[in-house]
Specification:
The complex is a heterotrimer of chains A (about 260), B (about 300) and C (about 325).
Chain A: E1 8-17, E2 24-34, E3 39-44, H1 50-57, E4 65-70, E5 73-74, H2 80-86, E6 90-93, H3 107-118, H4 124-134, H5 139-142, H6 152-164, E7 170-174, H7 182-199, E8 202-207, H8 210-216, E9 219-224, E10 227-233, H9 234-239, H10 244-252
Parallel strand pairs in A: 3-8, 3-9, 6-7, 7-8
Antiparallel strand pairs in A: 1-2, 1-4, 4-5, 9-10
Helix pairs in contact in A: 3-4, 3-6, 4-6
Chain B: H1 8-30, H2 62-98, H3 100-115, H4 118-128, H5 134-145, H6 147-161, H7 164-171, H8 176-212, H9 223-232, H10 235-238, H11 241-269, H12 277-280, H13 293-305
Helix pairs in contact in B: 1-2, 1-11, 2-3, 2-5, 2-6, 2-8, 2-9, 2-11, 3-6, 4-5, 5-8, 6-8, 7-8, 8-9, 8-11, 9-11
Chain C: E1 9-20, E2 27-38, E3 42-46, H1 53-60, E4 68-77, E5 80-83, E6 99-102, H2 116-127, H3 133-146, H4 163-174, E7 181-185, H5 193-208, E8 214-219, H6 222-228, E9 231-236, E10 239-245, H7 246-251, H8 256-263, H9 270-274, E11 314-316, E12 321-323, H10 325-329
Parallel strand pairs in C: 3-8, 3-9, 6-7, 7-8
Antiparallel strand pairs in C: 1-2, 1-4, 4-5, 9-10, 10-12, 11-12
The chains are: A alpha/beta (about 260), B mainly alpha (about 300), C alpha/beta (about 325).
């Protein structure tokens, strides 16, 4: 899986909110790389900066300093047409399966917007049905539905389909499973895993739940207070953590088969 | 989707307003014995079978004037209200969504307009016009009353802008205008509807105020103008209550019904404001974690039950 | 885990039925639920969204409000019986003193304009109208110190406290009156892992030091229950489908839904990396029209013909049972996890 140029690279990226005494370094000098067809999970508790980092990668926010490079091109400052081109390569699924939807759009209308970004209107109906199929949904049933007629798990899958329509190379899943029940989470994680296998997709998964990171990722990055404190292959980070914060995090996580407070 | 339930207040308010509107628009056709410009009696004749509300200072039929006056007032109210709402929404959306320099400029301008007492502007502008037609007056009123709608819409827009579906829209490559029109505005519609109702009410009263000062439509009758005449010709001192009571009552009813309409609309759009029986019939609100529409009811009710 | 569990029954609930009325049809969120809690015990109630666990928490804590109505069942708390069917509201004095609810999202619904000490005073005064402010605050201070929390939080506003601290403070406040039973509805859901651990430790201390008699811990998070609960009850579609001792349930579940739920729990343990974890096919049923027979049968890998027509029996006794036909026909066996 090693390529010479990583797909996505972040060098000394920082994002500061506010000024002077009240300045908050939400992301503090983070450097990391993500390779092709990798599933990388960024784990952190609230306030760790993981969501800010995701928004920086998605270019919904500008970094205060540092560079973000996709395939060697710095994309930190792009706007307008270039930004739209970037979004054909990097897409996202967000946390809240209800508020991610425009209540006034049917699924069809939502997907059609993505199709327009891709350009080429000719076969957009077919593309929509294909994308839905990739996530295990039947287009004929789902396209005419309104968001409130779908369950949380179905909504998240529609969101993934929406992202897939653009054939991105990177999919950022920002706490995409946090608001779903345990049995549904597994379904969504399986969908993401399969996409990586079958469609050459790189997945950046953001979560506070280290159990999910353990299930699905190749590499794990641990963030705390805006800084990247540990990174490495999943088995290494989770079963023999080096940094004291990671060790404490893992020690505090409740388990099923070892007592937490025994 | 919300299932709207209108309370009793809504129907009462709507009924009152509609009754007045019908009187204003269709009255002259129904009661076609009465013409506003015709002299039918002497100065301040009391109510009689031919002039139901007596005559005014020119001997004209007060009832006829009332219908024509209501019509003018409502016309001006509607046009001014629509105009002010339109300007306010456009300015508010632009300022709220764009942010930055555009926001600063627009908000600065809005605040300046808000700080200037509109009645002063209205008086100055009205006074400087050679003739004052219905539409002119409506535009003048619209031009001075849009600021508070703009401010309110801007506040709502900045709030809607932070929602996730806007991020999704941007990531889907939608252009700004498309996002503002389809992702922001629909979420504001309930608010805009209420603002519109209030703008109409405000405009009608503004027109009445101007007319009372003698700055109303140059050539025509409105409720405010009737009041102006009644005061100028000392109907109060003379005891000709039919000259000033009817326009006052009608203006009060119009303002009252519009305000009640607005507050009952608020109840429809904000379920938490509902009272009594209406509260128990609250519709679907799908809360976080609910995994299917059927159990959303339970999850929704559980969420409601845990509300303090 | 608590060491000693007494034989005195703190809570005895039998056949509870509660529904949401007001829509087209009443939705029976709790259908024939029975649960017992003994002195010194922590009983976990686990389930997914819409299973009715929060409704159960409301009913047991005597805080059920319209549109939620209790339509049947028997409830005894601390030996005192409450007549639910009669439609009489339970004595207000019980709430907070006999049974106290720590609601979901409590830490976020504290009024931001009150300091913690004002909230404490309000709570104590609601039950003891004549108490003096200084005395009330003293009691609160002593309790905070006893639980190793800094007394200075009394003088702070909610926004000055971290999420974990807020939740612990709210827990202290809801147990100030030494309730016999504490019902905690998703107390750890919005917390970071380290705050979760501190809250769980605090709850255990409250039980061990007999400040409260017992806890009902409602959550969707099974690993958390593993660390605090003595027994776990699994709820599905408004009913309890299995209750068992914690270790027993986790290692040898007897109901297929328990097994499926346990199977989909993702924890940072090596076995998770080795295989694909399946979810549960299908989705939970509509509570206004649940399936005939066993409510889980459409999604159950062990379903037999009888499951589709007849409601399953409770196999076991009141404190440990599995409501399943398969369990009845395969005594002593566990489902696959």
């Amino acid at each position: 899986m090693t390529e010479t140029t990583p797909l996505l690279e972040m060098r000394n990226v920082s994002r500061v909110f506010g000024r002077g005494e009240n300045a908050l370094r939400a992301v503090d000098d983070v450097s990391c790389t993500i390779g092709r067809r990798e599933v990388v999970t960024i784990v952190g508790e609230s306030g760790s900066g993981k969501t800010t980092l995701a928004r920086l990668i998605l270019r919904l926010l500008d970094p205060t300093s540092g560079s973000i490079m996709l395939d060697g091109r710095d994309i930190a400052g792009i706007k307008g047409k270039d930004l739209r081109a970037y979004w054909r390569e990097v897409q996202a699924v967000f946390q809240d399966p209800f508020s991610s939807f425009n209540q006034f759009f049917t699924v069809r209308r939502l997907l059609r917007r993505s199709a327009t970004l891709r350009g080429g209107n000719a076969n957009s109906e077919k593309e929509m049905i294909d994308a839905l199929q990739h996530v295990g949904m039947d287009g004929a049933e789902v396209l005419e539905k309104w968001p409130h007629q779908l369950s949380g798990g179905q909504r998240q899958r529609v969101m993934i389909a929406r992202a897939l329509m653009l054939r991105p190379r990177i999919l950022v899943a920002d706490e995409a499973t946090s608001m779903l029940d345990a049995s549904l989470r597994v379904n969504i994680l399986n969908v993401l895993s399969d996409l990586r296998e079958n469609y050459d997709l790189t997945i950046l998964f953001i979560t506070h739940d280290i159990g999910q990171a353990c299930y699905v990722s190749d590499r794990v990055l641990v963030m705390r207070n805006g800084q990247l404190v540990e990174s490495g292959p999943t088995e290494q980070v989770i079963f023999s953590p080096q940094h004291e914060y990671t060790q404490k995090l893992l020690a505090d996580v409740p388990r099923l088969h070892e007592g937490l407070l025994d | 989707m919300r299932s709207a339930r209108f309370s009793g207040r809504f129907y009462i308010a709507a009924a009152i307003f509609l009754a007045i509107a019908i009187l204003a628009v269709f009255g002259p056709m129904i009661f076609n014995g009465h013409h506003p410009g015709q002299q039918v009696g002497g100065l301040y004749d009391g109510p009689s079978s031919s002039a139901w509300l007596g005559t005014d200072n020119l001997g004209h039929d007060v009832f006829a004037n009332l219908m024509a006056g209501a019509r003018t007032s409502l016309e001006i109210g509607f046009v001014a209200g629509a105009g002010a709402t339109l300007i306010g929404v456009v300015v508010g959306l632009a300022a709220g969504y764009q942010g930055g320099l555009v926001d600063n400029i627009l908000t600065g301008f809005t605040n300046v307009m808000l700080a200037i007492p509109s009645i002063v502007v209205l008086i100055l502008v009205s006074d400087s016009l050679p003739t004052r037609g219905t539409m002119t007056l409506a535009l003048v009123i619209a031009a001075t009353s849009w600021p508070w709608t703009a401010r309110a819409v801007r506040a709502q827009t900045t709030s809607v802008k932070t929602r996730e579906h806007i991020d999704v829209a941007r990531l889907s490559g939608a252009r700004t205008v498309s996002i503002v029109a389809w992702d922001v505005l629909p979420y504001l519609l309930s608010y805009v509807a209420m603002a519109f109702v209030l703008q109409i009410s405000g405009a009608i009263l503004a027109e009445a105020g101007l007319s009372l000062l003698g700055l109303g439509v140059s050539d025509g009758v409105s409720l405010g103008i009737m009041l102006h005449w009644s005061l100028a010709w000392e109907s109060v001192r003379v005891g000709a209550w039919w000259a000033f009571v009817p326009p006052t009552v009608l203006l009060t009813l119009i303002a009252f019904s519009l305000l009640m309409l607005q507050s009952s609309l608020d109840e429809v759009f904000n379920p938490r404001l509902r009272r009594g029986k209406l509260r128990r019939t609250v519709a679907f609100v799908v809360g976080p974690g609910a995994t299917s529409a059927p159990e959303a009811t339970v999850a929704a009710h559980e969420e409601l039950a845990s509300e303090r | 885990m608590t060491q000693t569990i007494g034989t005195q029954q703190l809570l005895h609930a039998q056949g509870l039925r509660a529904a949401y009325v007001g829509g087209r049809e009443p939705v029976m969120a709790c259908d024939d639920v029975s649960v017992n809690v003994f002195d010194g015990e922590v009983v976990g109630i686990a389930g997914e969204s819409g299973c009715g666990k929060s409704t159960l928490a409301a009913v047991l804590s005597l805080t059920a409000r319209s549109p939620l109505q209790v339509v049947g069942g028997v409830l005894e708390i601390g030996g005192k019986r409450i007549d639910l069917e009669g439609g009489e509201p339970p004595p207000r004095a019980w709430r907070g003193k006999i049974v106290s609810l720590l609601p979901q999202g409590a830490m976020n619904s504290i009024s931001p304009t009150l300091r913690v000490r004002d909230l404490v005073f309000d709570v104590i005064r609601a039950h003891e109208p004549k108490v003096k402010r200084a005395e009330a605050l003293d009691r609160a201070r002593q309790r905070l110190v006893a639980l190793d929390l800094p007394p200075r939080v009394l003088d702070q506003y909610p926004h000055q406290l971290s999420g974990g601290m807020k939740q612990r403070v709210v827990t202290v406040i809801s147990t100030l009156l030494d309730p016999t039973l504490l019902i905690a509805d998703e107390p750890t859901s919005a917390l970071d892992v380290s705050s979760q651990k501190m809250l769980i430790e605090m709850l255990q201390r409250l039980v061990q030091e007999k400040i409260i008699g017992g806890v009902i811990f409602v959550t969707h998070d099974l690993p958390v229950l593993r660390s605090i609960a003595d027994r776990i009850a699994i709820m599905y579609a408004g009913r309890i489908v299995e209750v068992s001792d914690t270790e027993e349930l986790i290692d040898r579940p007897r109901h297929p839904y328990s097994g499926a739920l346990l199977r989909s729990v993702l924890v940072p343990e090596p076995h998770i990396r080795t295989r694909r974890v399946p979810g549960i096919p299908g989705s939970p049923p509509s509570l206004s029209d649940p399936p005939k027979g066993c409510r889980f049968h459409p999604r159950c890998g062990y379903a037999m013909d009888i499951c589709k027509t007849d409601e399953p029996p409770h196999v076991g006794d009141n404190e440990r049972f599995s409501a399943c036909w398969w369990t009845q026909r395969n005594p002593g066996k566990a489902v696959e996890v």
